[in-house]
Amino acid sequence: MSPPTLTINPPLLNSATPWATNLENLRSILLSPSTGAVTTRTSLIDGFDHQHADHQYLFFNPGSSAPDKGTSSTPETPAGHTENATASLNNLGYSPIPLDGYLQFIKELARENPQIQKTIVISVTGPPKDIQTCYERIEAASKDVHFPLAMEINLSCPNIRGAPPPAYDGLALEKYLVGLPDAPALPIGVKTPPYTHHGQFATLVTALTPVASSLSFITATNTLGSCLILESDASSRLRPQLPNFGVGGMAGPPLHPIALGNVATLRRLIDEVPELKHLKIIGVGGVGDGEAYRRMRTVGAYAVAVGTALGKQGPGVFKRIETDIKGVWDN
Asked: Residues in domain Dihydroorotate dehydrogenase catalytic (predicted)?
């Protein structure tokens, strides 16, 4: 039996970012006439222990690696961020809002907007045993709303100490995938980190093949971990701008080439496996205008998600992309 089909029309949405944290964030994305779906920030069953002093993000100029002044730990962007600082670095974890909080947000949005039929992609993570519980709660919630719901399993956050991204490890991947329902009622997908060599892609394909009937999509890619941005202090010494050691996940335009390569490679490899050919790819990484959208679609993305550019430009970025492509969503 084929798994449920993920539908995103038009094929533009947001990715799971700090700018998809609260109800107002999600409402503004939903109400954009240029989006076909909404993705929530990645949540845990009990919420993430977010600490403002430890979990932050910044914007920086990708040409010079010079950061803007200020950092933020909330959806509110740092005051005075500049136009040229189009890239981001973060050492955030997951959302402090638990999964049930997002399910309540979705019910409220459904009551407010009975005429809108956009898919809501609920991004979740946690220990393998929690993923089945997440699915059960999302499926139960789907009976109370008219929005089509989907579940994205985030296996790729680089910022959780002591918990490397499971999507880099075949055995860890299997632990997450083996408990998925054989015949899900809702589309299920996995979010992957940036892969850098063939062995990593092969590991993913090998892990996905036995559970192909449980999966509908792949979201590629998350941020690139182990990146560092330095700033000058009052004495002109260079120091990390983010807290602690300053290392975090990078996104925005510098991520775009590797994201394109990941989408293109995944599309080619899964098309070679009959059991996986049905999988759709949501392309993420460095998209903030029509040209980047077109590139993602050209290499095989079914739909294109916006991350850092949403934080920089606000929900108007979706209209900008639609205007850039003159409303022609397909290549």
From this structure: 85-326
